[in-house]
UniProtKB/TrEMBL annotation, chains A, B:
The name this protein goes by in its record: LacI family transcriptional regulator
GO terms of molecular function: DNA-binding transcription factor activity; transcription cis-regulatory region binding
Keyword flag Transcription: yes
SUPFAM superfamilies per the UniProt record, alphabetical: lambda repressor-like DNA-binding domains (SSF47413), Periplasmic binding protein-like I (SSF53822)
Length: 348, 348
């Protein structure tokens, strides 16, 4: 037979000289069929290249055992950890992941959501793009009761669960830590406040200043996409300030901008933390390599991914109901390293 | 109607008070149907939550427009860049990616390959696990003429294409560069030589030594999984050597081991590059953050992913034939940074 023709149960039956009905039962592991025969059938199926008809049976059952994952960018350390955690959980439960990235573009996010819908994913896991304004593009999922789980960059919605960390609390704590180190003019490098993660981090920072009766200085708040380049530009902005106007600490909403700001300031002779203390967010690998090592917030992408998928699958299996869970907040840790330890340096 | 019932063309027809045949033609964008009517049909389909039947039509056409991607680990910087490049190319051609990770385990790789096969992917993209010994688990794909593209960690096979860089040449060049900087006792931190990438880097290193009539010293070759911990242990190994036996340079087969080896040696007072010069491989973000910055080999994961998917899809579309392409070698660049520049330091 030509090699690329589909192998059927009839081919297996012919090969073993038994009936197609026996093959069919054997492939379903029906105990009516003798164990040895079942083994023979399984071996022949493998040898001949038989593909079990998950595809047709999906069509019948209306379940594809496939989850859609829609992320802003695949190539970030955090997102790759999230994906690793998702794949682990999905694999354990016999689900597959289809992935797509919006490249931080709302329009591409919309097109990707349409594709996922037409691919009939059993559920959708989504972290929103930088400039997504609304979630009308997810309406088809809500209408058809296909569960949607938001993670990290989330959107309030009555029938979806969000997996987040307490961004507000983490930012509050890291700002409080800088204040305890004696910092009074703390700059914040923030992202787009359309996204909860950046809005909450900004709010936590401001609240900590307020609670310590420190002024919120507009000049010390920069927003950007928090890229390497944005970190370099923030450093230039600081260097252009009159020395007395400069911040004595920088809290960046991610590690990348913090690290590239530090490198640029160090090259200009600024001492860290003596002149300017630093704190970032994410605990990326670069935060442990920069000197001095960067104080940051650690939260496990792996756990975010694992939790998102596990909750989605439990819902699909009927073991729990996502629609009554509004949000799941995961733990994060303040990791204090040398970049913010002004007092210790002063004591030495 | 109940919200989770499947919406059919009959629902759309009823909603618009036109015939189901008109709806069917309109959804296929048949020019026989008036343009305004087509728009009305498309709008109603969206509003009612109609899912185009890609699923059933896949079953008819035997194509799923889905590619399987099987990688050792999702959470590495290189692999996340590869995935980003793959998603870009797949998305552009209307293909989706199903992903799975072997977690460096041959057995899990085998199970993942089976799942991909039964999910009826149109093609498979695979980078082998650390300890995969053979590719018998890919036989079902070869039998059914489902094209397989290997990338990065590849396996010689007559009917598959491999996407690689010239690992041998890159390792040769970086070793030659260290020799030109005056290094004579160059240590190599290598990976499992079962995998082409590590075997070829080792061979390139050795050939450069031979061509410069330098001895290949067994004591200066360590193999490991090239993790952070492996880098730290390599540093301890060096520190345990008598000072005269120590290497004057280290060429590591990845950046992670190089960087953690550097950090540990620096903490022990070893000067880089004056006492020991360093070179890595991959151009990971940490290589630009470590001080001194790490000399390394840059090759774009994005390009690897893009090339692998584009070639696979061109084959599936009949535009080209993968089976006659044995391998595609992509360009890599030697990136020289301060960690290896002994001579410049000597001159200053």
């Amino acid at each position: 037979m030509p090699e690329n023709r589909e192998v059927t149960i009839y081919d297996i039956a012919k090969h073993l000289n038994i009936s197609a009905a026996t093959v069919s039962r054997g492939l379903k592991n029906n105990p009516m069929i003798n164990k040895n025969t079942r083994k023979k059938i399984a071996d022949a199926a493998k040898q001949l290249g038989y593909q079990s008809n998950t595809f047709a049976s999906s069509l019948r059952s209306k379940h594809t055992h496939t989850l859609g994952v829609l992320v802003p960018r695949l190539n970030s350390y955090f997102m790759s950890s999230v994906l690793a955690g998702m794949e682990n959980a999905a694999n354990r439960h016999g689900y597959n992941l289809i992935i797509a990235q919006s490249l931080e573009d709302a329009e591409k996010e919309k097109l990707n959501a349409e594709t996922m819908f037409n691919k009939r994913v059993d559920g959708l896991l989504i972290s929103l793009s930088y400039n997504t304004q609304h979630i009308n593009h997810l309406e088809p999922f809500f209408k058809r009761k296909i569960p949607v789980v938001f993670f990290d960059r989330v959107y309030p919605h009555n029938e979806s669960t969000s997996i987040v960390i307490n961004n507000y609390g983490a930012a509050y704590n890291i700002t409080q830590h800088l204040i305890e180190q004696g910092c009074r003019r703390i700059m914040h490098l923030g992202g787009n406040v359309l996204r909860n993660v950046y809005k909450d981090r900004l709010d936590g920072y401001r609240q900590a200043l307020n609670d310590n009766r420190l002024p919120v200085i507009q000049q010390l708040y920069l927003t950007s996409n928090l890229s390497e380049q944005a970190g370099i530009e923030a450093a230039r902005y600081i260097l252009d300030m009159a020395p007395d106007d400069r911040p004595d600490a920088v809290f960046s909403a991610n590690d990348t901008a913090a690290v590239y700001c530090m490198l640029t300031l160090k090259a200009a002779g600024i001492r860290i933390p003596e002149d300017i203390a630093f704190a970032g967010f994410n605990n990326d690998p670069i935060s442990k390599v920069i000197e001095p090592n960067l104080t940051t917030v650690d939260y496990s992408g792996d756990t975010v991914g694992n939790t998102a998928v596990t909750n989605l699958i439990n819902h699909l299996k009927g073991d729990s109901n996502l629609y009554i869970t509004n949000s799941i907040t995961l733990r994060s840790d303040l990791v204090i390293r040398a970049s913010s330890l002004k007092k210790q340096i002063a004591r030495n």
